[in-house]
Amino acid sequence: MSNVSVIEVKTPAQLREFVRFPMDLYKNNPYYVPSFVKDELKIWDPKENPALEYSEAKQFLAQKEGKTAGRIAVMINHKEAKELGIEKVRFGWIDFIDDKEVSEALIRTVIDYAKEKNISKIEGPMGFTNLDKAGMLTMGFDKLATMIGIYNHAYYPEHMEALGLVKEKEWVEFEMNFPEVLPAKVEKFSGLIAQKYKLKVLHFKSKEEILPYVEPMFRLLDETYKHLSTYTPISAEQITTYKEKYFPLIDKNYVICVVDENDELVSFAITMPSYSRALQKSKGKLLPFGWWHFLQAGKKNDRANFYLIGIHPEYQRRGVTAIIFKEIFVRFTSMGIKFAETNPELEENKSVQVLWQDYNPVNHKRRKTYSLNIGNSR
Question: Which of 38, 215, 290, 329 could form a disulfide with 286 if both were Cys (CB 3.0 to 4.6 A apart)?
Fold first, then answer.
């Protein structure tokens, strides 16, 4: 008989325990990067998270010997089912001690929820939508996590596979040492492409000047990634939420926008200074002193992270990336950035991965979602 009990999160105190559990689990881990507690709490508030308008979700805590030993959330995205015909129970926010009784109890909870809903497939870890964190780390356990990546112990995927779950999707991430000299190919083609297609880079004098381009950026993301099998369009409510969440962290010097002769956005890249160390020092809180660590990370940093990049399909094979990377090189060099790290990219998305080929990228992290057809559950 199992010594593990799983309870559904019902109270504010339980929700706070759900949010804080990984911070305790990884307390002395040098690679783990915590999320903001306040932001994590908002995820489960229908007034704050527009995905809850078309999704249902529950959170659970696993307890063993009177202590919290794990957590997991289950979600059904009804928009995904309606627009893509994909019916599955998503699971995410999964963390657990190295105890197979605990991990089995958590996955069993997901399976039971799927059976209750007459859904035959589960998959995770993932969030509600494409823009949420996804993928269990399977390589790169000794690498510092980023603000938008999930970190987990090496035993996590071992537990998933022992429970019969199999790889569903895989993401890759790359790290680059930024060159001291711009590659000749990039230097040459950036000017030629800009002249040929009458393109120009926008230079923003303030963050406020970026605001009119925020919605076009998200629409361009739709155009860039709509060919991927699992992509669902971004709603207006999601745009508002992400703008409110991330815009305060954006530095105008890290945003590159390329427009055509009619000032229509054809490509953009959003990078940020690495806030990983700042998040570690702030321990998930901006107050009372967390803001200071973020301020310092923005002023003095030798590492940057790519967050979003979009290129209109009509321009994806026309060398527009040369313009973007020349501009990034100029700006990064002036700011002392020496290292850059990509966000997770689906392994199948070769059109994005080719963007880094001139910068000697090193694949330093991999992550997977795991799935199980309920008919195969034990």
Answer: 290
- Angstrom distance (rounded) from CA 283 to CA 168: 32
For 270-288, how does the pLDDT look when each residue is reduced to its tens digit (9 = 90+)? 888 888 888 888 887 776 6
Of the CA atoms within 13 Å of residue 140, those in its CB half-sphere come to 25
pLDDT on residue 378: 45
Q: Tell me 361's DSSP state.
A: -
Phi, psi of 106 (to 5 degrees): -65, -50
Mean of the per-residue pLDDT values for the chain? 88
Cα distance between residue 339 and residue 89, in whole Å: 38
CA dist., res. 194 & res. 205, Å (int)? 22
Whether the CA torsion 90, 95, 100, 101 is positive or negative: it is negative
What is the Cα–Cα distance from 345 to 355, expressed in whole angstroms?
Answer: 12
- Measured between alpha carbons, how far is 71 from 51 in angstroms, rounded to an integer? 21
Which tops the pLDDT comparison, 323 or 25?
25
- pLDDT reported for residue 289: 67
φ/ψ (deg, to 5) at 310: -135, 140
